[in-house]
C-alpha cells in the first residue's frame, strides 16, 4: 500500500482508479455467503424475473465494499474517519466496476491532517452506481 501524504496532495488530484473484474454469478454467490445477505433478487434468476428484472444483479453493499477496498489501498482502515455513500444505479452481471476518487478538500481537525475524497463506482464507462465521500486521517 502506498499511503497518501498530506503535503503531496492538491485539491483536485485524482487517485488512481481501482478496476475490478466483471461481476459473475459466482461473485454474487460468494458475496452472499460472506455477507449473509441472501436476498434472492441477487442470486435467484426466477425471483429476479418475477420482480421485473431481466436477471440477478449485484448487491449494493458489494460495490460499497469495493470502495472500502479502494480506500484501504491508500490508508490503513483505522485512518478512515467517515464514509457517506448514496446508491445511484445497478451493477448488472458482467459489469466491471471501477472505483475512483478525487481530493475534494484538505484540512486539519483534532490535530490530524485530513482529506475529504469524493468517491464513486462506475460501470460501462459512465454509469455511476455509487457516489459519496470519505474523510481520511493521514497523520
From TrEMBL:
Please give the superkingdom of this protein's source.
Bacteria
Query: Which InterPro entries does the UniProt record give?
Result: HotDog_dom_sf, MaoC-like_dom
Q: Which CDD domains match?
A: SAV4209_like
Short name of one Pfam family for this protein?
MaoC_dehydratas
Q: Which Gene3D superfamilies is this protein grouped with?
A: Hotdog Thioesterase (3.10.129.10)
Indicate the segments forming the MaoC-like domain, all copies.
20-91
Task: Spell out the PANTHER family in the cross-references.
Answer: (3R)-HYDROXYACYL-ACP DEHYDRATASE SUBUNIT HADB, 3-HYDROXYACYL-THIOESTER DEHYDRATASE HTDX-RELATED
The protein here is known as Acyl dehydratase
Amino acid at each position: 500500500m502506498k499511503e497518501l501524504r498530506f503535503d503531496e496532495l492538491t485539491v483536485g488530484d485524482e487517485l488512481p482508479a481501482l478496476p475490478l473484474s466483471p461481476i459473475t454469478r459466482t461473485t454474487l454467490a460468494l458475496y452472499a455467503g460472506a455477507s449473509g445477505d441472501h436476498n434472492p433478487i441477487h442470486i435467484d434468476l426466477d425471483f429476479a424475473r418475477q420482480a421485473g428484472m431481466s436477471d440477478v444483479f449485484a448487491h449494493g453493499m458489494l460495490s460499497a465494499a469495493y470502495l472500502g477496498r479502494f480506500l484501504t489501498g491508500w490508508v490503513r482502515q483505522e485512518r478512515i474517519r467517515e464514509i457517506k455513500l448514496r446508491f445511484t444505479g445497478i451493477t448488472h452481471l458482467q459489469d466491471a466496476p471501477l472505483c475512483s476518487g478525487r481530493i475534494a478538500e484538505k484540512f486539519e481537525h483534532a490535530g490530524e491532517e485530513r482529506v475529504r475524497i469524493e468517491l464513486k463506482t462506475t460501470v460501462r464507462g459512465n454509469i455511476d452506481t455509487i457516489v459519496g465521500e470519505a474523510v481520511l486521517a493521514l497523520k
